[in-house]
Amino acid sequence: MSVGIRFVGPDDALAWASLYAGYRTFYQLPDDPEVVKRTWDWLLNGEHSLVGLVATNHADVPIGLANLRWFARPSTATRGLYVDDLFTSPEARHQGVAQALLHRAAELAGEGGASVVRWITAEGNADARRLYDRVAVATPWVTYDLKPAPAASTPS
């Protein structure tokens, strides 16, 4: 399969939303059109240092996505490029789509002077991990999530 990689554009809204909904379903996140819309708006407007890529087929129809985010790396005084979301439509899997998206992310990181492209995945995501083990190095770091404290109320 011939795969093209390009930045998302306004005309990709419906296809991207469908792919992102598929990503959310894969990770058992609730169906939430508002989250999908807000994330799309962030990507389209470049908010939060987000960059959106789509993988396309021969007809320029999006068949995969990568949502990327630039981040500071204080420990090395460099920046990195984080792959927040990577998804390939089920019918396009095992055809080089995710690898092409990661390759383009690596190119963008190089062009932007980044020192690393980083991402996390679910431990049980065996198909993706086979690819990741071929193209990158797993780190020894363990991820934690801490719930934010409630906002302090200010006296009136």
TrEMBL record:
The record ties this protein, via InterPro entries, to: Acyl_CoA_acyltransferase, Bact_Acetyltransf, GNAT_dom
The protein's matches in Gene3D superfamilies, at most eight in alphabetical order, are given as: 3.40.630.30
Query: What SUPFAM superfamilies does this protein's entry cite?
Result: Acyl-CoA N-acyltransferases (Nat)
* Keyword presence, Signal: no
GO molecular function, a single term: acyltransferase activity, transferring groups other than amino-acyl groups
Does the keyword field hold Acyltransferase?
yes
Q: Which residues form the N-acetyltransferase domain?
A: 3-150
Give the record's keywords alphabetically: Acyltransferase, Transferase
**Pfam families associated with the record:** Acetyltransf_1
Name listed for the protein in its UniProt record: GNAT family N-acetyltransferase
Q: What is the lineage of its organism?
A: Bacteria, Bacillati, Actinomycetota, Actinomycetes, Micrococcales
